[in-house]
Structures are given as C-alpha cells and as structure tokens.
Amino acid sequence: xxxxxxxxxxxxxxxxxxxxxxxxxxxNELYAVMIQNPGLFQHTRAPKPTRSNWKVTAWNAAWIAxxxxxxxxxxxxxxxxxxxxxxx
Length: 88
What we know:
By secondary structure, the protein is mostly helical. The chain has three helices and two strands; from the N terminus they run αααββ. Helix content is 49%, strand content 5%. The longest helix is centred in the last third of the chain and has 21 residues, at 51-71. The model has no long low-confidence stretch (mean pLDDT 88).
C-alpha cells in the first residue's frame, strides 16, 4: 500500500505532515462516512443538526481519530510482563 495519501479535504499542511499515512487515511475515510451518513451517529429522536454544524462535528471527530493514530504505540513495541499484562 502506498504511503502517499491525498489531502482530499484540505487539512492544514502542518497537521497533515505530522500524521502518518494511516492517520491520513483514517481522517479521509471517517470524514467521508460521517458527512454522508449523519444518521449513523445520531440518536433517532435527536434533533437533526444543521449541515454546517455537522461538518464541524465530522471534521473534529476525524481530526481526533487521525491524531490518535499519530500518537499510538506500535504493537511491535509492546510486550507482556510475567503476569501477562501489556507493557510498553
């Protein structure tokens, strides 16, 4: 899989460069899904948000997800102690 990921939604370059390719993919995919399907993320009885408010919500969720990918410890760096608990 290529590490080159298109900045489809014009994320500021400083953040885009900071995220690994996996974080960039997560941003693009999550934002696209949330924008196209707000009903998946809303309670059935909740008032429908305005389009502009929903775009902000989708953007923020995708940003948080991409940021979390950037700060995750790779599984290869984790091990277990004698009690079987995961340690860094």
